[in-house]
Write a structure and sequence with these properties.
Blueprint lengths: L7 H17 L9 H7 L1 H11 L4 H10 L4 H12 L17 E6 L25 H4 L21 H6 L28 H10 L2 H12 L7 E17 L4 E17 L12 E8 L3 H13 L17 H7 L2 H9 L6 H27 L1
Antiparallel strand pairs: 1-2, 2-3, 3-4
């Protein structure tokens, strides 16, 4: 009972043309350039790079323009492009202790080496619309930028001196599995979970993190440190026998400090949650750290209380916005055959019920 849609190809071409027209908008208004998006919508660009697993601000800005500002569509475009790129090697792990920080705060220690650096943040704004921006007003210049500051060791190191926080897990000699090259399989170790959380939808991860703060997972956290800045990326060159710097990337790192009453195998101490994402994406990094800690209940010997954020299968299989979008949006595509089968089934069931009712009435 399937009937082919006549003129389908022409309709699709017209839909594409209409989309391009809508994307451009009013011709009397100056067109947005990729450079403008990259420089003036940098937080959107950072999210697309992080969830798209590709660090390239220009391509992320282009994807945002092409998608009319639909960030999930832009992330889809970036991931699709990423699959076409050859892989010629792997970089060395970045050293965030050597980060050139634009922002570095701690909610646990007021005075710490390197100091608190507020950096560019919405934290202290009044959340009132600034109509000067609508009038194309100029943004005031920063009166004083921070001078060169000393090295900024990680805050958790202070607690580690007293043995009050769990030791950071040393990296294994075996290379971690690559989620961008192989499908997610459970059980997933922590490195794979962190990869999935980095690529996860910010809103979903925020919701999971919020649930832990409201008591679903017994996960009371402090932001031990949040830092944003640039770090060098190094790559080992076999012909040279040593690693060389091939560039710099901007990242956000969050370490949370969590209460832990101890277990049969571990003494009372603080434990860690961790988040690392491309760009200035601090809401995502904090959310990631909270969910990471909630997912560690088993390795820390804690009880499973049935919280959604503790369920690795639930979190990891539903966090990816591209997979979710694909499965969700496929239902708007033609399902004529399926629906006709359902329609015939419902009609048949109704006929059977009506026949039974008629038979009962006759008796």
């Amino acid at each position: 009972m399937y009937v082919a849609v006549k003129g389908g190809e022409r309709a699709i071409e017209n839909a594409h043309a209409w989309l391009a027209e809508e994307r451009r908008g009013d011709q009397s208004v100056a067109e947005l350039s990729v450079d403008q998006i990259r420089e003036q919508m940098s937080l959107a660009v950072d999210r697309v790079m992080s969830e798209g697993s590709l660090y390239d601000p220009d391509l992320a800005a282009l994807a945002i323009k092409q998608s009319r500002g639909d960030l999930i569509e832009a992330i889809f475009l970036i991931r699709a492009y990423r699959t076409t790129l050859p892989r010629f090697g792997g970089s060395e792990p970045i050293d965030t202790a050597e980060m050139d920080c634009d922002r570095r705060i701690s909610a646990t220690f007021k005075d710490l080496p390197g100091g608190q650096v507020l950096g560019p943040t919405f934290d202290y704004t009044h959340r009132l619309l600034d109509f000067k921006l609508a009038a194309d007003g100029e943004t005031p210049e920063v009166n004083e930028r921070p001078a060169e500051i000393e090295a900024m060791p990680h805050v958790t190191g202070f607690l580690n001196r007293e043995g009050l926080i769990e030791e950071a897990v040393d990296a294994s000699d075996a290379p971690p599995r690559d989620l961008t090259r192989e499908p997610l399989e459970l059980p997933a170790d922590r490195s794979l979970r962190l990869q999935a959380l980095t690529r996860s939808d910010e809103g979903f991860t925020l919701g999971m993190a919020y649930s832990t703060q409201r008591g679903y997972a017994r996960n009371h956290a402090f932001v031990g440190e949040l830092r944003i800045g640039t770090v060098p990326v190094e790559m080992d060159i076999p012909e040279l026998g040593f690693a060389i710097e091939i560039g710099e990337i901007n990242v956000t790192e969050c370490e949370t400090i969590n209460q832990f009453q101890g277990s049969k195998t571990e003494p009372p101490q603080f434990t860690r949650g961790y988040g690392l994402v491309f760009g200035q994406t601090e809401r995502k990094a904090i959310s990631m750290a909270l969910v990471d800690r909630a997912l560690r209940w088993e390795e820390l010997g804690e009880d499973f209380v049935g919280a959604p954020a503790q369920d690795a299968e639930f979190v990891l299989y539903h966090a990816d916005n591209i997979q979710a979008t694909g499965f969700l949006e496929h239902i708007k595509l033609p399902h004529y055959v399926d629906f006709q089968a359902e329609l015939e089934l419902v009609r048949k069931l109704r006929r059977e019920v009506q026949a039974e009712e008629t038979l009962e009435a006759a008796e």
